[in-house]
User: What shape does this take?
Amino acid sequence: MSIYNLTGCVWEITLACCFSCSYCGSRAGKARDNELTTQECLGVAEQLGELGCERVSLIGGEVFMRPDWDVIASRLRDLGIRVNIITNGFMFTKEHISRMKAAGVTSVSVSIDGTRTVHDRYRQQGSFDRALSAIGILRESGIPVSVISTLNSGNVDCLEKLRDILAPTGIFAWQLQACSPMGNASEGTVDHRFPFSRVISFVEDNMYDVPFMLGIADNIGYFTPSEGYLRGNLSGRAFYRGCSAGISGIGIDSAGNVRGCESMYDEYFIEGNLRERSLRDIWEDENGFSYNRKFDPSLLSGRCAECEIGRYCGGGCRSYNWFSHKKMYESPACARAFGTDKEVP
Assistant: This one.
C-alpha cells in the first residue's frame, strides 16, 4: 500500500478541440487515434474509485467534443467522486445542462483569458461572447461556475478590465494561473513571462472587493507576506504546500498515460499507461513520481537553494519550472525571490 493518498485527478478525456490556441499546452485540436474507449474509461473510473479519489476534473481538448462525456461523469458520480468540467464554453448549449444534471456534475470552470479583443485574438472571433453566454446558462440552471484565466505577457494587464466584466456574472471563483511554455506555447508565438508580483498585487488589492473567491494557482507565488490569503481563502491559512503531483494528485491523458499532473505534458513525466498497468500499480510503485516523492532540499538550486522557505515550497511548480528552464527545483519567477512591495492585507 502506498503511503500517499490520491485525492484529485485531472483527466483529459479527448484531445479534440474546436480551437487550436497559440498557448495550448497539449497542442489540442484533433482527437488521438488511440483514445480510450468508453468501456476503458469506465474501467479507469472504477480504478479511481478503488484508490479513494475524491474529485476529478474532466478536461480536453474540449470535453463536449467527446460524445460519451456524460457517461464517464455518471460513472464517477456513482462511485462517490465529485466531477468538475473545464470548458472553453464555445460549444456550450442548454442541452448540456440536462445531461450535466443527470450525470451529477458538481461544477463547471470556463476559460476566459482576457477582454473580448484579447480573448478572441487567442482563440477565435466570437469565443469571448460564447464563454460569457455559457456562464449565464450555467448560472440560470443553478450549476456553480468559476472562471480560469491563463496569463502571459500579452494579457496580464487586462486583469482590472476583466475583473469588471466578471463581477456581475455570478461566478463563485476566479483563478489566475501562469501560462507554462509547453506545447504550442513553447514555440515562441506567445511570451509566457510576466512578473508574479503583478498578479499577487492584483489579488491583494481586489480580494475583498469582488463578489467571488479570487486566488492564484499553484504555479504563481510563493510565500510573500500575504501568501496565506492568495489562494482563494480569506482565512489567511491557504498557503502553498508544495507540488502535489504524485503526492495527492495525478493526471491522465486521453490515451491512458498517467502523469503526476496534466500540466507535466511531456513523455518524460509518463509513469505508465493504463492499457499496460493498473492505476493502483502505477500509484503504488515505490519508484514512481520520484521527482516529488523523493524530494530533498539538497535538490534545490539557484535562489531557491538559499531561501529558508525552500524546504517547504520545494522550489515551486515542477511543471512551470521544467518547461521554463529545465530546472525542476528552482522557480524562475518566485515573487519572494524577485520582489514584491505589498504587505499583508
Notes: Residues 264 and 319 are 5 Å apart (CA to CA). The mean pLDDT is 94. The two ends are 43 Å apart (CA to CA).
